[in-house]
Hints:
Helices cover 53% and strands 12% of the residues. It is α/β, with parallel strands linked by helices.
Amino acid sequence: MTIRVLIVDDQAMVREGFSVLLNAMPDIEVIGEAVNGREAVAQVEALRPDVVLMDIRMPELNGIDATREIVAADGDAKVLVLTTFDLDEYVYQALRAGASGFLLKDASARQLADGVRVVAAGEALLAPTVTRRLITEFSRISAAPRTPALARVGDLTERETEVLVLIAQGLSNAEIASHLVVAESTIKTHVSRILVKLGLRDRTQAAVFAYEARLVTPG
């Protein structure tokens, strides 16, 4: 099954470079490009890509607001944010807006392709160390824990809370299963229940939630 990708970036060279890299993969096809967030929203509606590669800093409508609009219109939309800086002040906001993860623009062709595959499969791109570091950093400077978030934690069982913490630490389902010495299918069930109970759309938002509720502390 071919993964259909939309590339959103205001720099032509970046769009062309990513298109060449991704189209060289047998299971990925770039089906369109957009030069700003406003055009991205329209292109997503028209083309229905499997994954949107979204730049953050663009004219007319930035990547954060575009991501928010895309996710609001389609809860199943998968956005992979691209940024030039490993400590971009907007990355945390993008994750909270509904992005499924992010990559640095200097990622290798393999990292880019693997990132697209991970997000297309419905997983969050949280494994890389830089992702965990960024989530930690922006949790550190974010506002104090929100009372509603803390209240919702009480809906989770002790095991579900444990799984949520491990998600926030960047572990995959298989790694969590190994850590807790249970079947991977059991972890998948826990993850599904966590998302339903907390009203979250994916693992990325679950990880952000865990940091905001201070279930995981920066450091």
